[in-house]
């Protein structure tokens, strides 16, 4: 405990680190205030009585990322989701389109061009999603008249403008946190939105268990299992397979360069949280059968809206595994890694440079991707398993899935940056043994 207090004092004594923390907290506070400001033309009292919620599929994912602002009809209802969608699209373009690959290799200037295209695309995506959100609000508020009648004629135009401005403002907050604050701004905003639901979900689960005799012990067991799952997710996020790499010695004048032995870290879960997001998006499509009006269509939709359904979990796990292999193949290029090693006089012991090196790295990647995909699929279906075992829906979402993986990854990244600041000034790190390894130490797909 004394060492922990001493570490906090060291963190606070570093002026640069202190200013970054305070700046980050200020912008996060502004974001959280905005999530409680209701859109113009909406009666918040009637909306609250309606109990509008989005608990499944893409709508549930948006509401999770927006910290509940989606279901509250807030000015930040779409949150950072349009920017994430645009970023994912541009990331895929840098892999599939040669022009974008060339732009990415231009260095800082290329990165600025890609960021600018991402912002333009964010505006377009937001306009489409805002129009769809207006239709969604009109559908759920048609009977309760939560939309003020005198404002109905202007509701579509004002809501699209406000939601677009709100998303761009949240995107700006994320960029400012990244530039002048602590950690990745976009990731922190998502994590704060997820954590905002934790106290209410925790209290709901505790209340649900406390009213029954002997259920408090079960609640304590649930917390212990949750802690173990978090530890397992940390291992999944940080797990790497290190391939030894040697660099040939070079003598220039009287000095010797190279000759060092290093490692090429290959992540067990290179795809990150992307397969889970893609799987949720794909499995949302069958729910559209609900609008067919047929008994068969409604039966199909009921399976894919119930995350605790056995068939849903089986299909979901298979889709996650498939997307893990697909996304890993898109973002991981063994040929490029082999060429970079060859250009820098590096080689893997016992493997010839060039194509044999690329084949070897590809084989290693294929071997570790399978257990990584299986573990990722297990993490994805853990909320459904927890719900089947009696955990409330809100609290079960923290037992796995997108929420837990994002929280673990973002917290590790933020702690790594704090530890780097401490070690730069010759303070002790946050851990006695070893250093905290976040996702920034190796290639990682952004979300």
Task: Give a written overview of the molecule.
α9 (185-195) packs across α18, α10 runs antiparallel to α11 and α15 packs across α16 (355-388). The chain is globular and about 85 Å long. Mean pLDDT is 80; it is low at 440-447. It has 447 residues and is mostly helical. The longest helix has 34 residues, at 355-388. The protein has helices at residues 2-13, 15-34, 44-50, 57-65, 81-96, 98-104, 108-140, 152-180, 185-195, 198-210, 215-238, 274-284, 295-305, 310-331, 334-343, 355-388, 393-396, 401-424, and strands spanning 240-247, 250-252, 255-257, 261-267, 346-347. The chain is built from 18 helices and five strands. The strands form two sheets. A three-stranded antiparallel β-sheet has the order 4-1-5. Strands 2-3 form a two-stranded antiparallel ribbon. One of its GO terms (cellular component) is plasma membrane.
Short key terms for the protein model shown above:
447 residues, mainly alpha, Preprotein translocase SecY subunit, 2 domains, 3-stranded antiparallel sheet, two-stranded antiparallel sheet, globular, disordered C terminus, SecY, translocation, transmembrane, transport, membrane
Q: How is the topology of this model organized?
A:
Layout: H1 2-13, H2 15-34, H3 44-50, H4 57-65, H5 81-96, H6 98-104, H7 108-140, H8 152-180, H9 185-195, H10 198-210, H11 215-238, E1 240-247, E2 250-252, E3 255-257, E4 261-267, H12 274-284, H13 295-305, H14 310-331, H15 334-343, E5 346-347, H16 355-388, H17 393-396, H18 401-424
Antiparallel strand pairs: 1-4, 1-5, 2-3
Helix pairs in contact: 2-8, 2-9, 5-6, 5-7, 6-7, 7-8, 8-9, 9-18, 10-11, 11-18, 12-14, 14-16, 15-16
């Amino acid at each position: 405990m004394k060492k922990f207090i001493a570490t906090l004092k060291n963190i606070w004594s570093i002026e640069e680190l202190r200013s970054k923390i305070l700046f980050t907290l200020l912008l996060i506070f502004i974001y959280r205030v905005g999530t409680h400001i209701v859109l113009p033309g909406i009666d918040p009292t009637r909306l609250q009585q309606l109990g509008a919620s989005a608990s499944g599929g893409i709508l549930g994912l948006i509401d999770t990322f927006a910290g509940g602002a989606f279901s509250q009809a807030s000015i930040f209802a779409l949150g950072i989701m349009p920017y994430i969608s645009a970023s994912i699209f541009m990331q895929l373009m840098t892999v599939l389109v040669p022009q974008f690959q060339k732009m990415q290799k231009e260095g800082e200037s290329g990165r600025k061009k890609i960021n600018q295209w991402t912002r333009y695309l964010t505006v377009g995506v937001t306009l489409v999603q805002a129009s769809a959100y207006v239709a969604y609000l009109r559908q759920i508020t048609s009977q309760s008249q939560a939309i003020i009648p005198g404002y109905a004629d202007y509701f579509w135009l004002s809501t699209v403008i406000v939601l677009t401005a709100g998303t761009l403002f949240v995107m700006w907050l994320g960029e400012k946190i990244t530039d002048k604050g602590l950690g990745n701004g976009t990731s922190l905003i998502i994590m704060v939105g997820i954590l905002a639901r934790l106290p209410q979900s925790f209290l709901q689960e505790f209340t649900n268990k406390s009213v029954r005799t002997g259920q408090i012990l079960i609640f304590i067991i649930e917390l212990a299992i949750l802690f173990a799952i978090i530890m397992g997710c940390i291992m999944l996020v940080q797990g790497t397979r290190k391939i030894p790499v040697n660099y040939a010695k070079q003598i220039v004048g009287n000095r010797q360069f190279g000759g060092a032995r290093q490692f090429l870290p290959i992540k067990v879960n290179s795809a990150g949280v992307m397969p889970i997001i893609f799987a949720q998006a794909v499995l949302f499509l069958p729910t559209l059968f609900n609008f067919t009006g047929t008994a068969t269509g409604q039966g199909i939709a009921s399976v894919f809206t119930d995350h605790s359904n056995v068939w849903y979990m089986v299909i979901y796990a298979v889709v996650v595994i498939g997307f893990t292999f697909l996304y890993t193949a898109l973002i991981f290029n063994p040929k490029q890694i082999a060429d970079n090693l060859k250009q820098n006089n590096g080689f893997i012991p016992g493997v010839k440079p060039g194509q044999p090196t690329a084949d070897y790295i590809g084989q290693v990647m294929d071997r570790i991707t399978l257990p990584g995909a299986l573990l990722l699929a297990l993490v994805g279906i853990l909320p459904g398993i927890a719900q089947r075992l009696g955990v409330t829906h809100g609290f079960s979402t923290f037992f796995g899935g997108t929420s837990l993986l994002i929280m673990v990854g973002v917290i590790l990244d933020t702690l790594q940056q704090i530890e780097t600041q401490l070690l730069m000034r010759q303070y002790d790190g946050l851990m006695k043994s070893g250093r905290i390894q976040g996702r920034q130490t190796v290639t990682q797909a952004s979300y």
